[in-house]
């Protein structure tokens, strides 16, 4: 009888130990699984934060590199007006936005590769504008042929259109103080500024205040 009780106790103790061991293993596996999930969550969270920060930096770069500017275009253009562009855009981009040149335009009067600056006011010239300086020279030549005695006086009294005259025209006009070197500076300044000299101040920037003041009586700014 005592032997049976002893064996029964051994069996009960063994079953208890088995349950205790299994319970411990299950608890340990749950803890490991939880830790793995936390680790995965942290890694995913860190990756998301990195991606968000990277996107923010990229967006900032894109925003800085594409600042909005405004410029006006008029003259021989299909849809003159004020247009919004991005910094770094060229005059050609502005021309395209405005619908392109008219049939009466002189496309080569403008440098399409030049960058647009905020606040630019760009004129597209007509074919007549280009021929204007040539017509003035022809008129002077005809006058000299028909009135040889008065040709010198007529040429001196005729003012030179500084916006249509070529470098050679300026030299031939024989304006006091303006030699070939200065006439070249005038033309170069004009080409860098949308093909125009708009005022005496522009002329001063090209050749200096004193020279500009001296030649104003010999030229006209149209």
From TrEMBL:
Low complexity compositional bias, start-end: 133-155
InterPro entries: Endo/Exo/Phosphatase_dom_1, RuvA_2-like, Soluble_ligand-bd
Transmembrane feature ranges: 6-24
SUPFAM superfamilies: Nqo1 middle domain-like, RuvA domain 2-like
Gene Ontology CC annotations of this record: type II protein secretion system complex
UniProt source species: Clostridium pasteurianum DSM 525 = ATCC 6013
Pfam families named in the record: HHH_3, SLBB
Name the record gives this protein: Competence ComEA-like protein
Domain of life where this protein originates: Bacteria
């Amino acid at each position: 009888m005592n032997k049976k009780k002893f064996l029964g106790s051994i069996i009960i103790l063994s079953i208890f130990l088995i349950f205790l061991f299994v319970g411990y293993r299950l608890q340990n596996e749950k803890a490991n699984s939880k830790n793995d999930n936390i680790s995965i969550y942290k890694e995913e969270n860190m990756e998301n934060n990195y991606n968000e920060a990277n996107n923010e930096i990229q967006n900032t770069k894109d925003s800085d590199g594409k600042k909005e500017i405004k410029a006006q275009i008029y003259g021989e253009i299909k849809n003159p007006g004020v247009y919004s562009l991005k910094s770094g855009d060229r005059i050609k981009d502005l021309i395209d936005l405005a619908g392109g040149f008219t049939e009466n335009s002189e496309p080569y009067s403008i440098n399409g590769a030049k960058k647009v600056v905020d606040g630019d006011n760009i004129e597209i010239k007509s074919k007549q504008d280009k021929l204007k300086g040539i017509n003035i020279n022809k008129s002077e030549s005809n006058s000299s042929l028909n009135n040889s005695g008065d040709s010198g006086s007529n040429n001196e009294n005729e003012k030179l259109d500084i916006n249509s005259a070529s470098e050679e025209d300026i030299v031939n006009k024989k304006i006091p103080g303006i030699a070939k070197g200065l006439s070249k500076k005038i033309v170069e300044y004009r080409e860098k500024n949308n093909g125009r000299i708009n005022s005496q101040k522009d002329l001063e920037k090209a050749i200096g205040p004193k020279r500009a003041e001296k030649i104003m009586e010999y030229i006209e700014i149209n």
